[in-house]
Amino acid sequence: MRLINFLLILLAVASAFGTFPHSFKFLPFASEDIFHHGWFLILLGYLALLSGWYVVQRTGRLLREIRYPTLLLSTPIQPMGPPKKFGAPFQLIPTHKRLIVKIISDQRYDSKIEKKTAAYIVSAWKNRWGIWGGALIHMGFSVVFLGGLLTFLFSDVRDLMIPEGETITLSKSQTKMKLEKFAVLFNSGEFKPENYVSHLLIEKKGKITRKSLLVNHPVKIGQAKLFQMRYRVEILSVGLLVYQRGKTVERIELAPKEKKALSQVPLLLEVNDIIPDFMMNKEGAVASRTPYFRNPAALISIYSADEPEKLDRTIWAFPDLVSHDGKEAEEWSFVIERIKKRYISGIKLSQDPGVPFAYTGFIFLILGGFISAFVIPRQFMILFKPISEGGGTQMEIFCHRTKDIFGLQRDLSVIKSKLSGALEVPGA
After folding, report:
1. Which of 369, 378, 368 is nearest to 411 (CA)?
2. pTM above 0.70, yes or no
C-alpha cells in the first residue's frame, strides 16, 4: 500500500505539473511534455494493471460472500459481550425461528438460519451491496488509467487555423472540411460580441453537410470533436478615394505595406497601419477601442515619385472625409471606400479515444465513493448451542468488522435485549 500510495501521489504531481502554462519554467522541457515521456506511460500502465487485478480478486471474493452468507464464519469476527444463557431447551429453537427473524428484520436486517452440528447459526446482514464501494473505486481508477493510456498512445489534439474559403483534410479520416464563412455575432446596439461562428462545409464519404461551430457549442464529426477557440483577421487590401484640395482625383487599391503610384499625380502611396476601431487618448496616442471594425482608420504614407524611399508625410484616412470649419482643405486627403479582409478561424481538433474511458472511470469513482461513504454494510452472527449442564441454551453474538461499529453496536443492543426478553434469558 505504501508503494501504491507513493505512485498515486507521483502521478497526481506529474499530472498537475503538466497543466502549467508554457511560461512556467521549472524544468528544461515544457510542462505538457511530461505526458509524452515513457516513464509516464509505464506508470499509467502499471497502476491500471494493479487496479484491474485488485478488482478481479475483490469481485470474485464478494460474489462468493453474496452466494454464501455464512462465510462470515471464516472472516474476522469478534464477540459482542459475554454469552447469554436461558433455560429453554435447545430443541425448541426451531419453534422460535419466526420470532427470531422478526426481531432481526425490525432493525432492517435480512437473515438466514442454518442448522449446524449441535448448533443453530443465524447470519444477518444490512446494506450488503455496500461492500462493492471499494471495488467500484478501484475499477474507476483502472478505467481512468486505461483512458490515459489510450490518450497517450492514440490521441490527436491540435490547433487549426483555417482561412475563409480554404479546405483541409482531417487526419486519420477521409473527411474534408471547408470554412465557408466566419462571422462575429453582435447583439443589436451592443459593442461586445455575443458569439463567434464558423460556417463549415463537411464532405465525408461523398456526403456533404453544413454545420455551424460556435463558442461552447462543439461540433462532432465522426470520432473528431471541433471547438471554436479564437480567430484573427487578415487584411487583403484597402480601397481608397484620393482627394486633392477636396476634389476627387482617383481610386486606388492597396495591400498592406504595398507601395503604388497614382496614375494622375507623381506620388506613391503606402498603407502603413490599419486600426479597426480608431480612438485617440488624452495624450494623443492612437489606439483601437475594440478589435472589431466599427470605426476603421488607415495610416497612409506619401512618397514622391522622384524619391520613392523618402517619406513626405503620413495622413490618417477614415470612412468619411474629415474637415474642420474655418480651415482650408488639405492638399491631400483620403477616404476609406472599403476594406477587403478575410477571417481565419482558430479551431481545436480533438480525437481522443481515451475520453469515454475517462468519463466512465469518473462515474465509477463517484458511485464507489458515494457507496463507501453512505452505504456501510453491517453483518453479525448469532450462535445458539446447547448447554451440557441443565439442558438450557446459550446465545452468543459475533459481529463482522465494519466502519460503522457504533451503529452496529446500537442495533445489536436492541436485538439482544428483545431476544433475551422473548426467550426468557435469566438475568436479562
Report:
1. 378
2. no
